[in-house]
Amino acid sequence: MFRRSFTVATRSLPRTLPLAYAPKVSQTPSLPARFLSTTARMVIDLRGRCVCSNLKYTVSLKSEEDARTTLCHCSSCRRAFGTNYGLTTKVPLEGFKYDQGEPKLYKQDNGVIREFCDNCGAYVCEYGEAAADKFRYVMWGTFDEPEKVPPKGEFFCSNKPSWMPDIPDVFRKQKIKE
Ligand SMILES: [Zn+2]
Ligand SMILES: [Zn+2]
């Protein structure tokens, strides 16, 4: 507990420095504004649904840090999303529950399981077999208020099309890990 509150105090320190220090402050490793926000450790409740609303879910998180939204440029995400990248929010399984409807499951060759609505066909979440009892990757666009969990990073940037501009203030991996 003590160490955590100490870290917060240190991170907010540059804001109180005299203006003369400003250039130096801006060269410190960039810390996205969300970490300085007073709401960063607040509980987050997100609701979401499929296109036809047969499937509805709630995500309840202890803090903003429990949600990790990322873009993924891998070929599997491209195919599943039908766009040039996938956009999902990783949340702990215990924070995810369906309020309405039963999803249909599809497991693809690479072990990724996707849960979708058997009426409108919209995917709601996905996960790898190995993490099935730990996490859900929720399709960002199915949240009612997706802006509560903006992107923190990008994966498989090696596949990113050259015409796509960079997203500011996010980590980038050429593959899944490096
Ligand atoms: Zn539906
Ligand atoms: Zn992917």
Automatic annotation (TrEMBL):
Keywords on record: Lyase, Metal-binding, Zinc
Metal-binding among keywords: yes
Any one Gene Ontology molecular-function term assigned to this protein's record: metal ion binding
A Pfam family matched in the record: GFA
InterPro entries: CENP-V/GFA, Mss4-like_sf
Domain of life: Eukaryota
Name by which UniProt lists this protein: CENP-V/GFA domain-containing protein
Organism in which the protein naturally occurs: Coniochaeta pulveracea
